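BUG-438 | component: ligand-complex export | severity: low

The export step for uridine-5'-diphosphate-xylopyranose jobs runs without errors, but we want the raw record kept on the ticket for reference. Input record follows.
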Amino acid sequence: MELFLVGAGYVGLTTAVGFAQLGHRVTVHDIDAGRIESLKAGRVPIFEPGLEEALRRELAAHRLAFTTDPTPGAAVEMAVVCVPTPIGRDGLLVTSAVEAVVARLVADLGPDRTIVVRSTLPLGGPDRLEAIGAGRAAARPAIVVNPEFMAEGRALADFAAPPRVAIGYLTPADRAGADRLAALYAPLNAPLILADARSVVLWKLASNVFLSLKIAFANELARLADATGADVTVVADGLGLDPRIGRAFLNSGPGFGGSCLPEQAAAIAVEAARCDVEAPLLSVIATANTTHQEQLVSTVERLLPAGLRKAKIAVLGLAFKANTDDVRHSPALIVARGLRARGARVVGYDPVANGTARGADPELETASTAAEAIDGSDAVVVATEWQEFASLDWPALATTMRGDLVYDTRRTLAPDVVRGAGLRYVGLGRAGVPATPR
Ligand code: UDX
């Protein structure tokens, strides 16, 4: 099938490559001419494992093309909208970019064509899309929503083997478009759920918010474990053995970050208020994350004999999670800022996100290696679960530190190895884990 995809960001590029790999021809449009030029040359502006290689293969096979021309060619059967919906001042996702693109596509495409909105929408999104289409009611292309459930760092794998695909039609008349999109996904052999767009949009929001809820729950348990001498990993593993609960997303850490979870955890509370729905549970999830991050900063302060003022802290990992250079709402940066606010000098290090981190926080100092960040530090805080940190040479690093604290918020390090180097290992939720006698 001939596809036209608007928005060459992380969701758009992964989706374009995913459909190209299924044998479709995808032309990707973006208004950023520089980005389009580098994509034409096979250069991907984001760090996503496997994406650049896959994109180059699809370019070479002529299944992928890039353009700054916003008008879909006459052969285009389906247009996929992947433009951003940032959070607005009112706390809701802003749909103006999506609406502008959909309005143009409604004018450009014939009635037997399909517009697929893959951007994340607020709950009122389907109403707005319906209003755009209303002008051309009978003659307009079908409009469907198809939210993405692709996690960064494993986005191509998530596209190729999704646990489910959600397709929502705006009105019963759009159902034919949902069927056309379902046919595209059929080779993936995933459960396909076709339903009305309002349910699908709420489902997508609920999905991310539920993941946030699980993490926030795990983080409060971790602090409870610290206070009582329990090991939160035993608790999470135990909980996970109950199939009604499940183990996924119960890893405590420095809080949930990224472009989706924090904004959507906050947005659902605003949505509930907008709809006059009393939802006390939904309204605390985002706050719980912020409280947790403040508590982590306080913990580091408590663990340092001379406090944070004038302390040098190495923060290992700046990306919001491993395997990405994305620092949007990165817990590492939030904790780093919290430490600085209490008088510490922070030097961060990330295997791939030093540049994006400095872009997001110009006051952040970064080092080009973990050893350089750790040199002369009073404490090391592990904030992102990069594998690289597990194999650091702790005995050698210990000799370069001024202090002895290693605070591992991700439980990425081997406590025995760090303690064996003469350092004071403290793992979040792991305070009760005794050191193995040497
Ligand atoms: C998320 C959703 O998972 C994906 O389905 C959606 O479409 C886009 O948003 P992503 O933002 O890439 O994906 O990150 P995700 O892997 O969900 O992690 C979000 C945050 O939660 C990260 O900061 C991560 O470190 C944290 N996390 C995740 C935990 O702290 N503990 C866990 O057990 C899992």
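Assignee comment: Attached the raw record above. The two ends are 64 Å apart (CA to CA).
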